[in-house]
Amino acid sequence: MNKRVVIALGGNALGNNLPEQMAAVKNAARAVADLIENGCQVVLSHGNGPQVGMLKLAMDELAINHPKYTVTPLSVCVAMSQGYIGYDLQNALREELLDRGIQKAVSTIITQVAVDPKDPAFDNPTKPIGRYLTEQEVNAERQAGHTVMEDAGRGWRRVVASPRPVDIVEIDAVNALLNAGQVVIAGGGGGIPVVPEGNHLKGTGAVIDKDWLSALLAQKINADFLVILTAVEKVAINFGKENQEWLDEIDCKKAEELMKEGHFAPGSMLPKVQAAVEFAKSGDKCCSLITLLDKASEGIEGKTGTRIK
Ligand code: ADP
Ligand code: MG
């Protein structure tokens, strides 16, 4: 096959806690190793929703119960999540490759992603993070300039912006490793959002959608394929309704029409289709695929999944 592929792993590939993650990454490693065994050059990205939520909660509790520790910024929690998820993924993949007699270094790059401080998303934070807050904490958060919102009747939480990724700071490292024939895990959780201020990169309290970031990553490594692995084998129109239809292959124009008609849920399938379209539009050879983790190889061979060209 000899293709360059970005594989974006969805939340179900990582489980909801540490033991689940250890088990889940073995499954993900098998799917990724199948592609590598078939000659693909792979960069792996992944989500981090539950994981960064857990870390933020833990660090907030630490600061409350042990006042000598100050609050840990969200950007640092994203970096922590990239570290421990990458650790599990790279070891699972290393082991799976060695079991198949393949000697290839696998490494995780702590990845920062530049965002535009004027991105309109900053005026309209939408992603709830961390734990529910007391009235006192709500006031303290507001005083610190953070946005807090009522989350579906369950209580108050901090909400953060989800800006578009503009540039990947460590992209040269990703390409250097890839050109050396190595496997790279990068852009975990959509990357750590930073705002460049001269030579300084300032971490910002936002989260980038991992599907959007994966589309940018695929362009920056000159990939042939963007493979988004999630909990459904194909994308559907009229999803969950009587007249539901699974899609095999659509072009970007069709995908854009379907997006306008509201077939894809915001926050789940919509960012995937947006990412798939953005990458497919970036070059003639560029193709995006959305399918199940276990179907990745079959999908690339054109046997299943939804392709966007
Ligand atoms: P991930 O963790 O992989 O990002 P998400 O839960 O965010 O997964 O998104 C995948 C989910 O999107 C599917 O499991 C499905 O329930 C939902 N979904 C929403 N609209 C559609 C659609 N039109 N076709 C298929 N799945 C859809
Ligand atoms: Mg998602």
Stretches where pLDDT is under 50 for at least 5 consecutive residues are none
Could you tell me the strand content as a percent range? 15-25%
Structural class: alpha/beta
- Please state the overall shape, judged from the principal axes of the Cα atoms: globular
How many strand elements? 17
Bound molecules: adenosine-5'-diphosphate, magnesium ion
Helix proportion of residues, in percent?
25-40%
Roughly how many Å apart are the termini? 18 Å
Radius of gyration: 19 Å
| H/E series | EHEHHEEEHEEEHEEEHEEEEHHEHE
Average predicted confidence as pLDDT: 93
* Helix count from the secondary structure assignment: 9
Strand order of the largest sheet: 3-9-2-1-12-16-17-15
What does the main sheet amount to? 8 strands, mixed
Structure description:
- By secondary structure, the chain is α/β, with parallel strands linked by helices.
- It contains nine helices and 17 strands.
- It has helices at 18-37, 49-65, 74-99, 135-143, 171-179, 210-220, 252-260, 269-281, 296-300; strands at residues 4-9, 41-46, 106-109, 112-114, 127-133, 147-150, 156-160, 167-168, 183-186, 192-197, 200-203, 225-230, 236-237, 245-246, 249-250, 287-292, 306-308.
- The strands form four sheets. An eight-stranded mixed beta sheet has the order 3-9-2-1-12-16-17-15, with helices on both faces.
- A hairpin with a 2-residue loop joins β10 and β11.
- The protein is globular, with a radius of gyration of 19 Å.
- The structure holds adenosine-5'-diphosphate (ADP) and magnesium ion.
- Magnesium ion (MG) binds at residues 10, 47, 268.
